[in-house]
Amino acid sequence: xxxxxxxxxxxxxxxxxxxxxxxxxxxxxxxxxxxxxxxxxxxxxxxxxxxxxxxxxxxxxxxxxxxxxxxxxxxxxxxxxxxxxxxxxxxxxxxxxxxxxxxxxxxxxxxxxxxxxxxxxxxxxxxxxxxxxxxxxxxxxxxxxxxxxxxxxxxxxxxxxxxxxxxxxxxxxxxxxxxxxxxxxxxxxxxxxxxxxxxxxxxxxxxxxxxxxxxxxxxxxxxxxxxxxxxxxxxxxxxxxxxxxxxxxxxxxxxxxxxxxxxxxxxxxxxxxxxxxxxxxxxxxxxxxxxxxxxxxxxxxxxxxxxxxxxxxxxxxxxxxxxxxxxxxxxxxxxxxxxxxxxxxxxxxxxxxxxxxxxxxxxxxxxxxxxxxxxxxxxxxxxxxxxxxxxxxxxxxxxxxxxxxxx
Length: 407
What we know:
Rossmann fold; five-stranded parallel sheet; hydrolase activity; SGNH_hydro_sf; TAT_signal; hydrolase
């Protein structure tokens, strides 16, 4: 016997809060790109503008690892270059609200960017004065340490000048550390040994000047316990396709501000999270008795409905798995698990069957069929339609759990 929608509501949440069709945190869109006064210096300001439905432009400066050089074919750009990957991530959380430009130039340094000898048009200040971008990323480091012509002190001074110029024009600087490199092929041993001091200079400037830092070195080094470093940097310096994706996705961290999972059994749910959904049929957020305290729910339609949920992993999932929490019921359907909007990604995918023969169970964990996630930023989600299996679908949050012994 099927259970009615009315009965399901009464069983799950007598005081359930029905929500409108539009996502809770994202309102109307502004037709103008937002500019910021000089006093706004952190990316959290841009994150709040995006949460309010305002448009934000972003510009990315840097070297070949920002531009996207392919290992072994460095004059060819990888489509998964960091700015493109950043755009993909932001579109899944703030659809239609951001534009990301790739202004990186291979083989250049922060000093050349500042004085305009990197091959661009004019000095950095000249370019910035004509830019409508609010958020400015810079990953210059590798070529700076790949030379005895400068040291970490001069480099630190140059990074500070980049920050000061950026703020002078009312824009928000974001410093990006390089991903891990290896002393193979294009990777130079002396360069690898010099790099830690330059990365520390980046971290010091971020701390001393209150600047957002995307620490790709930290996340790629943590990931190298699961994926060897030479599989992250295909030629010792330039990144593989998935590593470029990770580097760009991590750049979304200061604009999405995801909750971080560090240890097994850490969890994060709807509370204070910039998730996105396009649920149109029976959308509601229920106050329920589960480990998260709330659940987002909807019923399937012929067209796809989605939930996109961001999170930050401090470590790769070599010893853990990322479980999704929700409820099961007689009215349950079947949904796909998605990873950055795709349901067939080998890193994280599977199906969720929300249907049980009778009753309702509020606090259920669902494991993906595949879970091979790097340290860093991720967007996992739910995709539902009548074609997959009509019925209810829902999402309460995620929890990091020990990897099953047979996995």
